[in-house]
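Moderator note: this is an archived Q&A kept for reference. The question asked for a predicted structure of one protein chain; the sequence and the answer are reproduced below.
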Amino acid sequence: MEENSESSRKDLIPRKAPGDAPLDIAAVVTSAVPYLGGPVSAVLSGISAGRKYERVREVLNGVAQDLKDFKSKASEEYVKTEDFQELFEKTLHQAAEERSEEKRQIYRAFLTDAIASPGEPYDEQIRFLKTLDELQPDHLRIIKALSQPPEGGSGMSGSPSNTLSQRLPDIPHERIADLVQQLNDLRVIGLTSLNTMMTFHGAQDLRHSIQPYGRRLLAFIVEH
């Protein structure tokens, strides 16, 4: 009961009861973050039912919580721009279709960061959204496994393949190799020699294989 009560206190945007008419949550968001009311109203006109509504509600509730006490004139001006409104719409529509809670949390972090720290080029933000849309939960697991510091132990040699198999024992080797190649293709990582034998420490420390673009993604994964 205590956990439910705590969750209720944190939810600025109420859940929709079965049979209710589409709920206009723009007013609730506006009360917490006034300058987001307009963009929210524009997007929600097409998202009002079932699981998609709940997914968007979850993301917006998180963004409203993140920005509740945040004030910035630059942010208030930025959310009025066409670039932001298109970015906002694309992000929420992707979140509405996203089944993975972890990825929805990344969408939340992405929107919060875009509003709180305006200035990122629009094309780069759209590229990030396209990449995130293609990523599966197992891709995120690969990235997190690569980001781990070297573990204790000793040995004469090892390979990145062995390290990832140890860190992700429930994912078959062939599947790991496929996921790594897909991340290489997206330029999130640069790990082209999975089976190369190297020193034990070198095989354990794979953090260098995450590209700068991937590190930006990793920051959002770690944040939430």
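Archived answer notes: The mean pLDDT is 85.
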